[in-house]
Input
Amino acid sequence: MENGRGEEEGYDRAKEVKQFDDSKIGVKGLVDSGITSIPRFFIHPPDSLSCTATPTATAIAASPPASNPIPTVDLTDFDSDRRSIIVDQIRDASRTLGFFQVTNHGIPSEVIDRTIAAIKGFNEQSVDIKALHYNRDVGRSVSFSSNFDLYTSKAANWRDTIELRWGPNFDISEIPEICRSELVEWDRQVQRLGETLMEILSEGLGLEGGRLKALSCTEGKTMVAHYYPFCPQPDLTLGTSSHTDPGVLTVLLQDQIGGLQVKHGEHWVNVQPVPGALVINIGDILQVISNDGYRSVEHRVLANHLLQPRISIAIFFNPSKREDLYGPLPELISQDKPALYRPFTLSEFLGRFFTRGLGDKSLISHFQL
Ligand code: OGA
Ligand code: NI
Output
């Protein structure tokens, strides 16, 4: 029987969510406790679980996604004779799919393996030890929780996440010691790659190479390290709901398990793990700055049906100047191509993101002219 809020009599969703959060065990703790069915607040409506972008009753497993169109760009010799080829390949991918992978990016494979192992190590400690780190206090440098949007989203996701908010006041000692040196090193390595990518993306728009960097786009960074444990009912929930990334650019390290999907037309396509590669995607702010020259595209992660956990680590690059106005760059506006967005501050934009949580509809539509 429904009570008028679309909920059955006797089911207090808010209470169950709070109990789960207060237990500080995360979804990994639920799996460790031996559950064979998932708590109800993790169950998503059937249309957000479907394989195609349009609502359908088809289950995820029923029709496989289209073949992989996500290009892999080899960054070898970016500083010499292959620069213009690389700029073209990255521009084309960013303009259409909003996603690509990069190889020969200069980050050694041992560093990649160590980083993934460190996140695995953190999450596979006893629930008591992890509970000491469990907090969703955005005023701190580091938090660890299950679902940053647990209290605002319609349905919870099957993953636990450590979040690091890098910046001038970042307190390294807040990073759990078991993964501290690895995450500091990962940040350092990705910073260099991020700067190179920002140069390539600036040039791809026909701008001077330092243009995005000059807007402070390589200075604000958030790192999220996700742990997607085995899910006993993977067809009823998701690892990460469909969303676009709000920032400028995302550099994502995923292990070899798979499950990340990108919306391409009406279909979800798999971002097939490529050994040693990193996944790069355009965020909302860069779509705005580029006046739709580049696209921020919806993506999601399926719940993990394998016994092995899936680990991914994203670094979101954001402008560091939160109160400056960001809008389509004047160089990219003309009579033929008028500005498509009004300018806004990062504070306003991210404020909207965090009050809403992950959602299907892109936030930038609020700023469309
Ligand atoms: C994200 C994201 C994908 C993944 O953190 O924004 O899309 O593979 N992650 O975990
Ligand atoms: Ni994302």
About this structure: Residues 180-204 form the longest helix (25 residues). Residues 224, 226, 240, 245, 252, 254, 260, 299, 301, 312, 314 surround N-oxalylglycine (ligand 1) (CB under 6 Å).
